[in-house]
What we know:
The structure holds two protein chains of two kinds. Chain A is an all-beta fold. Chain A contains no helices and eleven strands. Chain A is globular. The termini of chain B are far apart. The A-B interface holds A 35, 37, 44-47, 50, 57, 59, 61, 95, 97, 100, 105-110, 112-115 and B 32, 34, 36, 38, 42-46, 49-50, 55, 87, 89, 91-101.
Amino acid sequence: EVQLVESGGGLVEPGGSLRLSCAASGFTLNNWSMNWVRQAPGKGLEWISSISSSSKYIFYADSVKGRFTISRDNAKNSLFLQMNSLRAEDTAVYFCARVSVAAAYLGAFDYWGQGALVTVSS
Amino acid sequence: DIQMTQSPSTLAASVGDTVTITCRASQSISSWLAWYQQKPGKAPNLLIYKASTLQSGVPSRFSGSESGTEFTLTITSLQPDDFATYYCQQYSSSFPTFGQGTSVEIK
């Protein structure tokens, strides 16, 4: 069974840093592109970053570019999101999601984690 | 970035109704469009990809169609489990974008 489990969320002060992890099981991560999507409280979905299977292609939304870094460790079947210079508007549930087509870097997101809540507040 | 304009934002319907949600792309995205269902406190669930292909395990009462840059999600014979929020998403570009969401509520 395919599973994605996020961890690392929590409360952080403005300007602080946090690192989210997404542990994959039930499939081999190195064949799949992955994404991070966030959802602010009561709001819609916002794509924030993607990484191709080999890490060759990496993209960021303008809202996080220069502050967030996506990475992956295929040997450990894990995806990461390093978040620096956090702002109140980064408060959201962060989901990792898999692209539905193996070896493609664009596609619908067929599996999602349960989400990790990040709260940026003093 | 490609903008996705979804309507309506809220829709009130009864069990057994047929409902339609529309999403318009700001430019051509070919058929690279997905629809998701999300329930409170849960992750989104993929319903349809490539505009009209039903994801495995999704009931056949869900269907998708397209006409140019306008895409439609139709739910036929609405069931109690279908009351949720629905999002469209384009994945034509390296910067995927979602519509604003449509909340399907009980009338």
